[in-house]
Amino acid sequence: MATIKDVAKLAGITVTTVSRVLNNRGYISDATRKKVHAAMEELNYQPNEIARSLHRRKSNIIGVIVPNVSHPFFAELTNYIEYYAYEEGYKVLVCNSYQNSDKEKDYVAMLKRNQVDGIIMGSHTVETSDYITSDLPIVALDRNLSNGVPYVTSDNYNGGVLATNLLIDKGCKKLAHISGPLEINTPANKRYQAFIDVATERNVEYVIKQAKLDIFESYEKLAYSLFSEHSDIDGIFASSDMIAASIIHVTNKLGKEVPKDLKIVGYDDISLASMIVPPLTTIKQPIEEIGKMSLKILLEIIDGKPVNTESILPISLVERKTT
Predict the structure, then answer these.
(1) Which is one GO molecular function term here (predicted)?
(2) Are 144 and 166 in the same domain?
(3) For residue 151, what pLDDT band results from cuts at 50, 70 and 90?
(4) N or C: which end of the chain has fewer CB within 10 A?
């Protein structure tokens, strides 16, 4: 296997000059750079990235921890983070926590060992002390980790207000809200609070159900349970488009017509939302902007710049055929 000394010998320059080319340090003429790259290609030389990162005290790698990258929302979000990270010269390590706090801790420890420059945390488990105390730059997605950790979210409360008011304005008399796990402190819980506030203010009967897992089958079971206990529900605000899609799937099996018998509003506006039958009315999160903003803030922290603790991006109502 070729070494940096072999590259220097073939290029006819010193090892120090090759090192400066690899680490982009100091002035190097174009002719010298071409010699080094030609020698590297001829020898099939691969630089030791770990050694280079130790030398630079920077790896140009960031970690992204999400509950499940196969979930459409996190798939789209991770895609945008990776896209903008690459444009900034960074590579991305993606980790699936599956809402398991032990796995989440293991991934944080692994990312530290691999000397990533920072972490974007999109996983939502209850225990967070292991990385809150870390001096590793961290940005949270839709989650309050601690007062010192900046987070990026959308205007969840306003989204809940728009969704609930739309259902009532469309004539719904009994509403249901299917939320995420409320015991975890996330800004997304404001969707739940907004639903309650609007339904109470407008004197409309309502029920609440909590979805525990990001699994399609669990959403279906929850929907069957909801309709079994409250067959007269005529409007549902789901806290994600995937939950809303599960509800539509169950209503088809039960012979209910959407939107004639049941009106549904989702949340996220994932790319699949417009392809569901019928196409889903939903609250649009700016997924691309969330990914871009979270990366921007993380890189600013890495560079030692001051950042805002809270970044709230606007949402909008996208009305389709389920209302």
Answers:
(1) DNA-binding transcription factor activity
(2) no
(3) very high
(4) N
Rounded to two decimals, what is the model's pTM?
0.80
Query: What b/e readout covers 13-39, taking b as 16+ CB neighbours within 10 angstroms?
Result: beeebbbbbbeeeeeeeeebeebbeeb
CATH number where 67 lies: 3.40.50.2300
Does residue 34 belong to any structural domain of this protein? Answer: yes
Q: Which two tokens stand for residue 244?
A: 């809303």
CATH number at residue 38: 1.10.260.40
d(CA 155, CA 317) in angstroms, rounded, equals: 12
49 pLDDT higher than 60: no
Six token digits for residue 162: 């728009």
Q: Does residue 129 sit in helix, strand or coil?
A: helix
Check residue 255 and give left, alpha or beta (phi > 0: left; psi -120 to 50: alpha).
left
Tokens of 319: 């009305």
Residue 270 structure tokens: 């994932």
Q: Do the beta carbons of residue 278 and residue 320 sit within 8 Å?
A: yes
Q: Taking 60 as the threshold, does the pLDDT of residue 54 lie above it?
A: no
Question: C-alpha angle 237/242/246, rounded to 5°?
Answer: 80
